[in-house]
């Protein structure tokens, strides 16, 4: 009871800090819609993304909402084009849960099995996971302990939860933050169980409808997307997977995102009580992550931010509860260099009274360098194959002893073997760099494709080199 009271007091205290009595806007220097439009056109040209949509809010007012470019069918991107926002969805799922908290139907510090008796895992610690820990991503769930490909093949949230039965936790609940989509898909299933309604319907009734987000939905059709392959945009269907959960399945528009951002700053239509809204935005006890929001620096400002990335779409949102400003940028493309954050920085600078920085050609430069590396790797492979006889003859001349010659030859092949080993372990290496997030070969055929092709070229050159040298060694041995 004492800990519950302390959490309530903390949430109310945070509400007083985050949502003081303010006029609708704390800034009078917000740029005009035409000024933002001018910047957006410059950013669109500089990044050369296929489609770009954005919104800027000031209090309850939408300063700018618009779109530029095209979708994969040639249609124009506008403020009302349906875009996938990926993990930006998490804050909306958290809001749906908190509407139930405000109604007394869910308690944040109650164990998940209270609302979801069919949630079990091979790890007994899972019975202690609370709803708050799901939303704070401190449940102990992580990609490393769950069969991610299996849950992605689920056809419903109930089936999704059933797959988790064989999983285990990688930390005690509440002790460590690990970003894992399972947390929010499990939270979505809690919403279904408590309301007796499908998650898409609940989101429409409890979040999208009350905020006037008429063109938003869970797993709805969206504009077609692209991936970048050495500077060229190639239209691709989104990678198949589970599309009815709470982790990343919202499809929305720039216009609707304006209404969402205004609500999240506490200036637009009220969806939650001030205490619940504050609870969403306050960091957990072990990490800066709240409930679908995280405090971060954008340009020169400290904002609440959350990004989202699928395999053909990217998005980012940011708000300042203190000033009432909100920002969102969405693209129907994906590449190794994410443009949405660069555009966001420029929007934040404008609203802060500074000249916006026009994004650079980061994607083109990155992929140009990778393309050059790939060509060099292929060239080195061709040269090594052509010189294999000379390589083998030189090794035989230097060492006449048979055993010594074999060991020397094996050691001299190690440089050619390295790219082969790197490519063979490519998904595992990326998973390690991404703090244990699951990476599959299918995923590597999307926005990381330029890197995948370069590593594949290096591996192919290495294999060809090894094969040619072994053949020549036999002929001179």
Automatic annotation (TrEMBL):
Statement: the UniProt record of this protein carries the keyword Transcription: no
TM stretches of this protein: 368-388, 409-429, 449-471
Signal peptide: 1-28
Keywords, sorted A to Z: Hydrolase, Membrane, Signal, Transmembrane, Transmembrane helix
Alphabetized Pfam families for the sequence: Beta-lactamase
GO terms assigned for molecular function: hydrolase activity
Beta-lactamase-related domain span: 37-336
Protein's UniProt keywords contain Transmembrane helix: yes
Name this protein carries in UniProt: Serine hydrolase domain-containing protein
Origin species: Pilimelia columellifera subsp. columellifera
